[in-house]
Specification:
InterPro entries: Acyl_CoA_acyltransferase, GNAT_dom, GNAT_N_AcTrfase_prd. This protein is α+β, with helices and mostly antiparallel strands. It has seven helices and twelve strands. The strands form three sheets. The protein has a seven-stranded mixed β-sheet with strand order 1-2-3-4-5-7-6, with helices on both faces. A three-stranded antiparallel β-sheet has the order 10-12-11. The chain has a two-stranded antiparallel ribbon with strand order 8-9.
Amino acid sequence: MAEVKVRELRGVEELERVVALQQAVWGFADRDVVPAALLIAAQEEGALIAGAFAQGELIGFVFGFPTRDPAQQHSHMLGVLEPYRGTGAALALKRFQRDWCLARGIARVVWTYDPLRGGNANFNVRKLGVTVRRYLPDCYGALRGVNAGAPSDRFWAEWELASPRVAARLSAPLPPADVRDVPFANRVDGDVPREAVLDLDAPRLLVRIPDDWGAILGRDPALALRWRLHAREVFGHYFARGYRVTEFVPRPNAYVLERIPVGEGG
């Protein structure tokens, strides 16, 4: 695979290519994309729009904008073309974003993602070191494209850029988490959620999610809705009790929740 290079994007032509990428990555219709004119305006007000290139072709991008907190950026979009997923392009974009933000005194980046997509969970939690303590039911309303078919519930990810946790995750591959004897906060039979277990008080908990949420979303809307409501109940309950996501275990997919004081560093 060709070497991936990341740099800031500038000008109408490059930002129009970002519009095309949105359509290719998520199946967006014209009404769903962030248009080039808005990207240009956001960039003038301090937004980051960076692209990943392989052999001169734009294959991915990241778009983050300022928030009411000067020390925090909201990362609204990160997308990579399907043939380049798993090649390190997404990680290169996030590394660039981290360096760009730290150079400007921005210490935290936040974003939303679908808690049931295991690939995103593995990337965000395990590789980047984000933590999660907020669950947003039906955050964006009804969506189209690859996200159509279930309420748009989202996790609110917090990426503490200068924390030892994040630095360690980015510097070396992480060994699998030791989750022996950690109780499950839900019961699952194959790819069907059966029961939320809401009376646990252990320091760490496991919450199973589907191994292939995209396949469920595409073939069985009723099961997708059942999973969505099940996850909403479990995560909403334990976040309210002071737990937060600190780890992810792939295949079978499960989040690790820990009860950690809110003021403790990420």
